[in-house]
Specification:
29 residues, mainly alpha, 1 helix
Length: 29
């Protein structure tokens, strides 16, 4: 299944943002 660069990039950014939010929550806890 080939994905367009835009879709791959959006997924990567979404995962990165989610990871950053998770790390921030752990740091704040």
């Amino acid at each position: 299944m080939a994905q367009s660069p835009g879709t791959t990039r959006r997924t990567f950014l979404t995962r990165t943002a989610a990871g950053a939010l998770g790390a921030g929550a752990l740091a704040a806890a």
